[in-house]
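Most newcomers find our protein records easier to grasp once they have seen one. The structure tokens are whole numbers drawn from a learned vocabulary of backbone shapes. The record below serves as our worked example for the rest of this section.
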Amino acid sequence: MTITQIAVMYAVGSDLFDAICHTFATLSTGGFSTTDASIADATVAQQYIMAAFIVLAEINFGIFHLLINDRDRQALADKELRLYLAILLVGSIAIAWNLFNQHMIDHADVHGSGETLRKGLIQTVSILTSTGFCVTDFDQWIFPA
């Protein structure tokens, strides 16, 4: 996974040093970045790649063992994997929906709805996996009481 992520990050425009450092921080779920802005300075493609690899890094390695040994059905039927992915999906959608609604109230337009979805998804993945990458100042998010 390390070599794959480095190659993909490099292919989408990251310099080799940042690709290596962000890959190590992503797969270890350490969340350290080479900039003060965390991954907010990364391109949208790089942010999505890091989020995808964070999700993969959090999956039980026993699942990968099953997949490598052609036991796909066993792997995909794993309750832990299904619950993990369901929590990430529901949490990401809920946060993105709230951010989208807040954006509509604050700005009265739909411009930036893709940005709110991206920030909600990536930030939720980072928080739920305790990785610590930031794409926005989530302390400023407003949630309904």
Remarks:
- The first helix runs from residue 2 to 11.
- DSSP finds seven helices and no strands in the chain.
- The chain has one domain: 2-140.
